[in-house]
Amino acid sequence: MSAIRLLVLGAVRQHGRAHGYQVRNDLEFWGAHEWSSAKPGSIYHALKQMAKQELLVAHEVAPSTAGGPPRTEYEITEQGTAEFFALLRASLTSYDQSVDVLSAGIGFIVDLERSEAVALLRERIAAIEGWRASVTDDYTPPEGPASLGHIGEIMNMWVHSADAGAEWTRGLIARIEAGAYTFAGEGEPFVGVLTQGHENPCATGVPGPGDAV
């Protein structure tokens, strides 16, 4: 699973309708260009591809009064919304997702109802614990990982990563159950996008291939 589809669909959905530069600006505001593949080229490519797949619909709008070419604005479709939520749920439950996929999922977790978010995170813990057990039961020698020399450190790293991931997830569940954050259906959500004209302190300032579209 790639984080870029979830990030782009989620960014468009938050705006309702957005052009490529707005999507890029939001994701840079999140720092996604540092922790994921959400670079300008991949963002614009994803927008065009998902429009072809009917997950987004592209609207060509008139150029600004200052001149320049028309922009293309994107709006998420019903099919795109279903895809967004499927990707979101998978990002939160699968133990083997890369950190950028999990990060993207956490970024949109409040789009779910609180009870569902907790249930999905509990699924994640169960998957992590199952994977940890497979490491200790199937790959670690009875005499311990040290018997494999430095190769045993691979098993140690896997187990440590599993324990850390489960501990962090339990902490997140505890914070959510204690009332942290505003989830779907609970009121005005936290605004995680930049308003029009607001300067982005995290922008790279590097022109992208689709900034004019």
- Per the principal axes of the C-alpha atoms, what is the gross shape? elongated
The biggest sheet amounts to: 3 strands, antiparallel
Query: How do the strands line up in the largest sheet?
Result: 1-3-2
The rounded Rg comes to: 20 Å
Number of helices: 8
Strand content: 5-15%
Low-confidence stretches: none
End-to-end gap = 27 Å
Mean pLDDT over the full residue set: 85
Helix-strand topology string: HEHHHEEHHHH
Oligomer designation: single chain
β-strand number: 3
Alpha-beta classification: mainly alpha
**Range of helix content:** 40-55%
What's a quick, concise take on this entry?
The chain has helices at residues 3-15, 20-29, 32-35, 40-52, 78-93, 99-107, 114-139, 152-177; strands spanning 18-19, 56-61, 71-76. The relative contact order is 0.17. Helix content is 55%, strand content 7%.
